[in-house]
Amino acid sequence: MYQGSMVALATPMLDDGSDESDVSSAISSAVSCAIDQPALAELIEFHIAAGTDAIVAVGTTGESATLTVPEHTSVIKQVVELVNKRVPVIAGTGANSTAEAIELTSHAVEAGADACLLVTPYYNKPTQEGLYRHFQAIAQAVDIPQILYNVPGRTSVDMQVATTARLSNISNIVGIKEAFGTVERIKELVNACADDFMVVTGDDGTAMESILAGAKGNISVTANVVPELMHKMCAAALEGDRSAAQKLDAQMVDLHTSLFMESNPIPVKWALQQMGKLGPGIRLPLTPLAAEFHDTVRAALTKAGAL
Q1: What is the pLDDT along the chain (307 residues), one digit of tens a residue?
Q2: 149 noted as active-site residue
Q3: What residue ranges do the domains of the chain occupy?
Q4: Catalytic residue among 77, 132, 149, 269
Q5: In sequence order, what are the residues at sequence separation of 6 or more whose Cβ sits closer than 8 angstroms to the Cβ of residue 243?
């Protein structure tokens, strides 16, 4: 249903320049990073022109954890309108509360999203049965294609292959973004899940090998800055052309690591700022990229042809 290079889109934010050393200023800054609508529109056109196969709005890279519900739903609506059906829009609507996830997913339906991406509940560390019932409840409550998202490095819960396989039999649960980070996990999911269930990777460093092993694409951070390269690499891997895919991935390999030198999306937002794609706005508790990492990220951008 969805395949290729699917960008986990960064959310452009305005920055009022408050002095965060002062408590009152820090509070003001935390709530005043409004969405930069012109930059968002430019980012969408950047990706459409580069061949990005789908756009994921308000996922982890889009700072979903710090946006208010009205902001969250507003960004989804704006992305849907700006894309105007040229590529699929997948809305990040996961939450650690089942009720909140249902609410956000319902809003995404109203906004016109093509599908939703639902992260495993974070912090409360549910059991495997709890994970199954959580996603089952959302699927039963909201009629839209739903993609699961397993990222244990951020949520402290790992949805096991057997649980995903159970969920793959629910008709509107159509796939999983697996960010466990190993090709072996991708292979296990491809073998265990329903035949029409889509497995995509969420780990840029293993994306090429994952696609060659059976994944249908990559929901990518790196694609934010080099969308054309990522699109071409995914396309080559989907065709089984290892040689072409390796040559393309080699240009991005330094980005796959440097864009995670601090917590995502700190490095990628700094990188996009260097490219002139957005301003410095980022919302607390995230902070701008530390100066000690600037040269490394800039060198990776240069190697990939982004600067």
Answers
A1: 799 999 999 999 997 543 344 444 444 444 446 899 999 999 999 999 999 999 999 999 999 999 999 999 999 999 999 999 999 999 999 999 999 999 999 999 999 999 999 999 999 999 999 999 999 999 999 999 999 999 999 999 999 999 999 999 999 999 999 999 999 999 999 999 999 999 999 999 999 999 999 999 999 999 999 999 999 999 999 999 999 999 999 999 999 999 999 999 999 999 999 999 999 999 999 999 999 999 999 999 999 999 9
A2: yes
A3: 4-241
A4: 149
A5: none
CA–CA distance, 101 with 120 (Å, rounded to integer) = 10
* E strand segments, the chain: 4-8, 54-57, 89-92, 115-119, 146-150, 173-178, 198-201, 217-220
| Helical axes 37-50 vs 227-238, angle rounded to 10° | 40
Instruction: Tell how many helices (H) and how many strands (E) occur in the chain.
Output: 13, 8
The token duo for 141 is 């409550």
Give me the catalytic one of 77, 177, 216, 277.
177
Task: Classify residue 41 by burial, with Cβ atoms within 10 Å: 0-12, 13-18, 19+.
Answer: middle
Nearest-angstrom CA–CA distance, 23 and 223: 36
Residue 181 dihedral angles phi and psi, to the nearest 5°: 105, 10
What is the rounded CA–CA span in Å between residue 201 and residue 147? 12
End-to-end CA gap in the chain: 33
Tokens representing 8 are: 């986990």
What sign results for the dihedral spanned by CA atoms 11, 117, 91, 224?
Answer: positive
Looking at residue 35, the DSSP 8-state letter turns out to be B
Judge contact between 112 and 73, C-beta under 8 A: no
CATH C-level class of 4-241 = alpha beta
Whole-angstrom Cα Rg for the chain: 18
Asked about 132 being catalytic, the answer comes back as no
288 C-beta neighbours (distance < 10 Å), count = 14
